[in-house]
Design goal:
By secondary structure, this protein is an alpha+beta fold. About 30% of the residues lie in helices and about 40% in strands. The protein has 4 helices and 7 strands, in the order E-H-H-E-E-E-E-E-E-H-H. The protein has a 7-stranded antiparallel beta sheet. The termini are far apart. The model has no long low-confidence stretch (mean pLDDT about 95).
């Protein structure tokens, strides 16, 4: 088991950041390798809701374990390479939103891949994906709406 933490500050309010984070259709825009999301059951702001994230032909079933809109979401995810839980906190800070994400991996293989994804800020790393998300939300926030 491994624990990895990443953080960033987004120049947008918590409600807008949370809405973007839970927009399953936008996952391919910021989560490396995601090709689609299927098997949606429930809403992303309800505990017990489920969906499957696809990385090519590899499925990652995901369940929402805890959620408080727009401040917190915790999910359990898993596939052959990476499985565990993601706990994300959103806090108002300065005129924006501080995102703090913690990944806890389960299993030996997941611990290895989790460590690889936790190293550096390359696209596809945990920090790289978070920074891609930040840019996406900030770009959207500067436009209409």
């Amino acid at each position: 088991m491994g624990t990895h933490r990443v953080t960033t500050l987004v120049a947008a309010p918590p409600e807008r950041v949370f809405a973007a984070w839970t927009d399953l259709d936008r996952f391919p825009e910021w989560i490396g390798g995601v090709t689609r999301v299927t098997d949606r059951v429930g809403s992303t702001d309800q505990v017990g809701s489920r969906y499957t994230v696809w990385f090519g032909r590899m499925a990652s079933p995901t369940e929402i374990l805890a959620v408080t809109r727009p401040w917190h979401i915790r999910t359990r995810f898993g596939n052959a390479i990476l499985k565990g839980e993601s706990d994300v906190r959103f806090a108002a800070e300065g005129g924006g939103t501080r995102i703090r994400q913690e990944f806890v991996t389960r299993g030996f293989i997941s611990a290895i891949f989790g460590r690889l994804f936790a190293m550096g800020s390359y696209r596809g790393s945990f920090q790289g994906e978070l920074e891609t998300f930040r840019k996406l939300v900030e770009r959207d926030a500067s436009g209409p709406g």
